[in-house]
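Backbone shape codes:
===
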Amino acid sequence: MNSALLLPTVLGGSILLTVAAGWAADLLLRRADARHPETPLWGLLRRCRPALCIVLLAALLRGALRHVDGPPLDGNAGAVGRVLSLVLIGAGAWLVVAVASAVVESGYARYAAGTRDPARVRRVRTQVTLIMRVVTVLVAVVAAAAMLLTFPTFRALGTSLLASAGIIGIVAGIAAQSTLGNLFAGFQIAFGDMVRIGDTVVVAGEWGVVEDITLTFLAVRTWDERRITMPVSYFTTRPFENWSRGGAQMTGTVFLHCDHGAPVDLMREKVHEILRNCREWDGRGWDLAVTETTPSTIVVRAIVTAKDADDVWAVRCAVREQLVAWLAEKHPAALPRVAVGQAPGEEGPAAERPC
């Protein structure tokens, strides 16, 4: 065949074969998904079609390159082959990560659908997220190393690098102590079940929900939509509050300062009435008691319960607002008062009577 027509023929044939193979793979996956709707694996694998097509096209062109000569490849066959090799390695790494992600996500989805314990689901989700990120990093490192080995210069340096790998490892370990510490802390958090994605935590005086956990840092979304990013080693070296451990149920308190003559029994009845009309209250328990006295006031504490941290916050606010409003309307004398008059018998201008 004429060399001028050989290159377009090879290129066109490779594209047609790639499109046909991608279409056939997508058709098989759609049929498998229709036959097995209980698992999302086949639908997730369809997302790997672009990576599969690039791998097939690069492999076909790389294999056919040795049989193509003439312009425009005269003198450029080596460079074109190296570019195709790099594309093949990169697309292969992309395909491996995509397939692994589909398999892991499918397994997690089936586990989450069959498990009613939200804490266990969050724990598995945290572990799956970290495992996928480790797999992605490993595949990327291997792919980068394979790309470098396609260059003769780096291939020649491979022997000397392997010979000094021990010294390089020691130096790298010393230089990256903080990074390696965070890396191992990430595994400790994921498989030690210390904190999970979705847990309600209090760290550094801030209350929030764990939004993301990586190999090196942890992101907490606070109640006012701020994001606090902290190294994962913080959670393995310092104490913190995890309100989701042992269940999401919470007990909250409401403190009020009242006058010594406040009707505590009536306040107790009012708190119970408020809770009965509050949909966030879970009905597990409540109480109201005087916990402290001062020279001018008494401290009244109300205890409320709810199914999670968000609901207990809503219940506390409702009790505080409605109880204060009820006291101001029905028993204004029960609210704290500041004495501005003089005590009986005290001498002073205010105690003098007009002549």
Observations:
- DSSP finds eleven helices and eight strands in the chain.
- The CA atoms of residues 326 and 332 lie 9 Å apart.
- The radius of gyration is 35 Å.
